[in-house]
Structures are given as structure tokens and as C-alpha cells.
Design a protein that fits this description.
The chain is an alpha/beta fold and 340 residues long. The chain has 5 helices and 16 strands. The chain has a 6-stranded mixed sheet, sandwiched between helices. A 5-stranded mixed sheet has the order 5-1-10-7-8, with no helix packed on it. The chain has a 3-stranded mixed sheet with strand order 6-4-9, with no helix packed on it. Strand 2 and strand 3 form a beta hairpin.
């Protein structure tokens, strides 16, 4: 089951309290304060784990608590710190504070960590309160409470190319042909009920990731159909591919509608490089010329038959070249002339 949004309650550990203690030793008749400090409470940490692809585990348990710090003891012994608790999530997870709406942060790369609830500080023992005029202090501090928060975890899949199209546009078939992904394929609308990822292999060991999301219908940005629920999953893509079935009633209208829905959802998303992919060209026999359409902002218009494995090579090559250009544009240039 694909779960991409959950709410969890996290409780960091409370700090241990300091203690009041006085030294009693054979050769130190006057003694003195030796109360130790309390230990620090455990933190709650979110960690990205590339072995995960869903937040399903958090539907079975919605409360997570770190260990509390131990109290201090005599002989200036500090209490043990509480154990941290780590919440593993898929890379691409965004964390928000449910009560304030504040964005706490996100974990994108495998192993990246984010502190979401800080453990309480341990209290001071009576040793800290000793002065020249106050040599037998009985003051001590209680440990601080650990931070408690309600968090919203939202998964946004990370892919290079995002397939966008109406239901039954042939996106799942295309993904299944160019990658090892096996999405559900059928001849009725909304076959895809959850996003799918596939790794596309190219000669020379080159690879990139393609994401297929459920079909977009008119009004998806406002919550109609499944579009609003899953449009977030193409926010992190570098390139968009608008898939239009060649048997659509009006190619131009469908393209304009898809562009409008993406733009209404996010202007930043609409500004990403995109191409147009006409699918199911096998319905026209041997015809492979793209139908006429006005798409001045697209970097290419392609015609394919995923079922017939026709027209795929030019499309994949175009995706790869565009991704290379984007990677070069975002890679910092190091000036070697300044090096010693």
C-alpha cells in the first residue's frame, strides 16, 4: 500500500534531575557537596532511508517517544543520557509542525538526518551551587521536559522525469516498457491509483528515474479526481512529459488543459522544461509523425507506440540530453586558477 502522508506524535525524553549529596570519606571529615547532574533526554530524529518507498509503517503506530535521562547521583556522577529514537522515512520526505504549519525541514539524500524534537537538559546537582560562603548547598535543579510535537510527514517522490497525462493516456504502459517497473495496466480510467517509479537503463551504464502519477483531469489542482493528491510527486522532477493519447478527442485542448492544471497547482512546477509525447501511435498503423499541435514552450514533440516498442529511442535520448543540460547548469564551477 502506498502511503505518502501521515501524522505522528513525537515526544523527546525528559532530562534527569540533579541530586543533593554530600561526600563522606574517612580522611575528609568536613565532606562537601558532590551531587551529580541529571542526564540529557533523548532526541527524536528523522532519517532518510533509500530502502523505503512509503510511510506505511506510521499508520500502525502514531506515537514515538525517546528515552528519558537518568537522575544524577553522589560522587559527582552524571546520570546516563536517554536513548535517541530514529524515525526512518523515504528520501524526499518533508516534515511540518502540524500545530503551527511551520516547515521543520526535509530529508532528501540517503542517511540525511533532521532533529525534530530536542531532549530536555539534565538538571544541576548541588555541587554547582557551592560558593565560598555557601559551602553546604541543598539546591538542585529538576530536568527539563523534552520537546513534544505533532508532525505531518509528507512524501514527495524524487525522479528525473515526471509523466503527466489524463487517465488512460498510456503512461503506465510507457513506464513498464522503458523500465523494470510493473504498474497496473488496464483498459479503464484511473488504473493507476498510486505513483510508480522506474529506473530507465541506457547504453553505457547511464540511468535516470521516471515517475508515473495517476491521471490528471480538469480541476485536479482544486481537488477533483486523484490529481491534487499526487501532483506533489512531480514537484521534485527535473523534466515533465505531457502524455497525450493519439485517440484523444482534441489534442490541443488536452495539452492546454494539462498545462493549465499544472500551472494552477504550482507556477514553479509549470516553469520546468517539458515535452509532449503522443502515445498509442499503433492505432494509426505505421504513422509516426506527431499530430499537429501548438506547444511553443516544449523542447520537443514525440510520437511513440509503447506497446509496439516504436519511437522510444529518440524520446529517451531527448530526455537524457535535457537532463544532462540541467545537471551541468546546476553543477558549481570551480576556478582552479585560485588554487595554490
Amino acid at each position: 500500500m502506498f502511503i505518502d502522508r501521515v501524522v505522528v506524535r513525537v515526544l523527546a525524553g525528559d532530562g534527569g534531575s540533579g541530586v543533593v549529596s554530600f561526600r563522606r570519606e574517612k580522611f575528609s571529615p568536613m565532606g562537601g557537596p558532590d551531587g551529580g547532574d541529571g542526564g540529557k533526554g533523548g532526541d527524536v530524529i528523522v532519517r532518510a532511508d533509500s530502502n523505503l518507498s512509503t510511510l506505511l509503517d506510521y499508520t500502525y503506530r502514531d506515537s514515538w517517544k525517546a528515552g528519558r535521562g537518568e537522575h544524577g547521583s553522589g560522587s559527582n556522577r552524571t546520570g546516563a543520557s536517554g536513548d535517541d529514537i530514529v524515525l526512518p522515512v523515504p528520501p524526499g520526505t518533508v516534515i511540518r509542525d502540524l500545530d503551527t504549519g511551520e516547515r521543520v525541514g526535509e530529508v532528501v539524500d540517503h542517511g540525511a538526518e533532521l532533529l525534530v524534537a530536542r531532549g530536555g537538559r539534565g538538571g544541576k546537582g548541588n555541587t554547582w551551587f557551592k560558593t565560598a560562603t555557601h559551602q553546604a548547598p541543598r539546591e538542585w535543579q529538576p530536568g527539563e521536559d523534552g520537546q513534544q510535537r505533532s508532525l505531518e510527514l509528507e512524501l514527495k517522490l524524487i525522479a528525473d522525469v515526471g509523466l503527466v497525462g489524463q487517465p488512460n493516456a498510456g503512461k503506465s504502459t510507457l513506464l513498464s516498457v522503458v523500465s523494470a517497473a510493473r504498474p497496473k495496466i488496464a483498459d479503464y480510467p484511473f488504473t493507476t491509483l498510486a505513483p510508480n517509479l522506474g529506473v530507465v537503463p541506457l547504453p553505457g551504464g547511464r540511468t535516470f528515474v521516471v515517475a508515473d502519477i495517476p491521471g490528471i483531469i480538469e480541476g485536479a489542482h482544486a481537488g477533483k479526481g486523484l490529481g491534487l493528491q499526487f501532483l506533489r510527486h512531480i514537484e521534485r522532477t527535473r523534466v515533465l512529459a505531457f502524455a497525450i493519447a493519439v485517440d484523444a478527442m482534441d489534442w490541443q485542448l488536452e495539452y492546454d488543459q494539462l498545462r493549465r492544471e499544472v500551472s494552477e497547482y504550482s507556477a514553479e512546477l509549470a516553469a520546468k522544461p517539458h515535452c509532449v509525447v503522443f502515445t498509442k501511435m499503433d492505432l494509426l498503423g505505421n504513422e509516426l509523425d506527431p499530430p499537429p499541435i501548438e506547444a511553443p514552450d516544449a523542447f520537443g514533440i514525440y510520437a511513440i507506440s509503447a506497446a509496439g516498442r516504436v519511437g522510444l529511442e529518440p524520446l529517451l535520448d531527448a530526455w537524457w540530453r535535457r537532463l544532462l543540460e540541467l545537471r551541468k547548469a546546476t553543477t558549481p564551477v570551480v576556478d582552479l586558477s585560485d588554487l595554490p
